[in-house]
Write a structure and sequence with these properties.
The protein has 67 residues and is mainly α. The chain has two helices and no strands.
Amino acid sequence: MVRGSCLITMFIVLFVLAGCQSSHEIEVKPVEIKPIHITIDVNVKVDRALDNFFDDIDAAEDKIKKE
């Protein structure tokens, strides 16, 4: 009887230890870095607005000089 209970205990320990095993796979892919191009045209809009503003003043100044 002792031999049978010892055998059962060994099988239980074997199954418990087998259930505790885990494996993990990690796949590392190469990282691709692409350049980023950014164009900001804010200054062009401001320059055009200032040119239009000063064109009006220059036209008025030319008108005053002609008179």
